[in-house]
Amino acid sequence: MTVEPARSARPLSASAPRATADRTGGTTGVPAAGPRQPPGGRAAWIAWSIGASVYVLAVIHRTSLGVAGLDAADRFGIGASALSTFSILQVLVYAAMQIPVGVLVDRFGPRKVLLLGVLLLSTGQLAFAFSDAFGPALASRAVLGCGDAMTFISVLRIAARWFPAAKNPLVAQLTGLAGMSGNLVTTVVLAQALHSEGWTPTFTAIALLGIAVFALVALFLRESPEVGEDPSSAVGAAVRPRPAVGRQVRDAWREPGTRLGLWIHFTTQFPGNAFGLLWGLPYLVQAQGMTRTEAGGMLTLLVLANMSFGFLFGRLLSRTSRARMPIVLTTIGVTSLLWAVTLAWPEGHPPLWLLVSIILAMGSNGPASLVGLDYARARNPVERLGTASGIVNMGGFIGTMITLFGIGVLLDVLTPDGAGGYSASAFRWAFCWQYVPMAVGTVMILRLRRRLSAAAVQGF
Asked: Is 49 exposed, middle or buried (0-12, 13-18, 19+ CB in 10 A)?
């Protein structure tokens, strides 16, 4: 008996070459006996849309504090460090849940995980709506973060089951773009409702949205083209038993593409995330003297830029995988350069055109971070795609957590006791903290990029 090369023994991944029909009706690229490829088409887009609606809801919940930061500080009587704890804990729970959620998706399917996620999101937001003390409000954001963690990976798994491999990068970017529409709801609708209707009615209304979304998923979502079957992994499941959870996580982590994806996600996502989740509105209002309406318009611009870059990057990545690293390095370089100019501006008051420029640059952060998931998808077999995606998806939120905490601590340190708000100078120095995780992440990307290139040359 002969032993086939390791590459042919490897289960077909979601990014493996597709079987393509030639002019005579035959196929090229994959043997005819290979596993059936996902069909795509109208049914695929319907399934993705239902899953993506949960992610939109999750982003509304996640970003709701971004327009309510100053209100939360007044309601609970807290300073910048305590205020940042809300977002830090929410992001910490999100990041910590990524590997468990990835394993759950691989084991039980995305539909059940999405349903659980909606329940947790609604429960956490409803508790937050009625909280009038710091402790209960903090606990409610932790529950919300747990529900949020269950959405994005599940939607990507649905896409992998329904769409051909070449469509996956575009669908991933469209998923991120759909999520940004939730952010748009937050900055346009929620911000106005918060000041016209008040704290409890506004957050209660958001929580009750979950009822409709839960019903939509429970009644209409199909996980795969054939109920109960994952066409992209049926062959792999038939020929070998499912590995233990610990081994599944270890195997995903040992893959250099997974680790490279994590550091790409870490480095590219956190600047825009930290700005949009918490510190953008206080910075624009207290340091730059904008009204809440003007600051809300700038945050809306951030969301629109994110959506535009998501569409652009998705088109580029669907055409060639060679665009991955140029997108990542360009995003890091432009974002860091524009922040340097902004923070170095005399007296910490940059002109409007520069503020618009840095916000547009941060709009590319979220779409660029999804390139990390593309690296993981291309280097892992289908049976552990959820686990690998969970590892990668931790990166940006760990970076966000580090940034949120660092900025909050520095603002408190740099602001005298009894001062009414934070000065432009305090924000200026506190935002310099971003360069610490940015430098670490960039070094790790370059290091793992070389390792991955060496492995490719050696045929691994």
From this structure: middle
Q: Which stretch of DSSP H or E encloses residue 424?
A: helix 424-430
Query: CB within 8 A of 94, min separation 6: which ones?
Result: 145, 146, 148, 149, 397
Token reading at 440: 């670490």
| Side chain identity at residue 352, one-letter code | L
Query: Could you say which DSSP state residue 229 is in?
Result: B
Residue 419, pLDDT score: 61
Asked whether 179 and 56 are in contact (CB, 8 A), the reply is: yes
CA angle 261, 431, 83 (to 5 degrees): 90
Instruction: Read off the amino acid at residue 226.
Output: E
Between residues 21 and 458, which one has the greater pLDDT?
A: 458
Over residues 3-20, the mean pLDDT reads 39
State the Rg of the chain over Cα.
22
pLDDT of residue 371: 92
> In the Cβ-directed half-sphere of 376, how many Cα atoms lie within 13 Å?
37
Q: Provide the greatest CA pair distance for the chain.
A: 80
CA distances from 311 to 56, 78, 156, 314, 328 (A): 16, 39, 16, 5, 15
Q: What is the mean pLDDT of residues 102-119?
A: 92
- 457 pLDDT higher than 80: no
pLDDT at 354 exceeding the cut of 60: yes
Distance CA(274)–CA(142), nearest Å, equals 17
d(CA 47, CA 224) in angstroms, rounded, equals 8
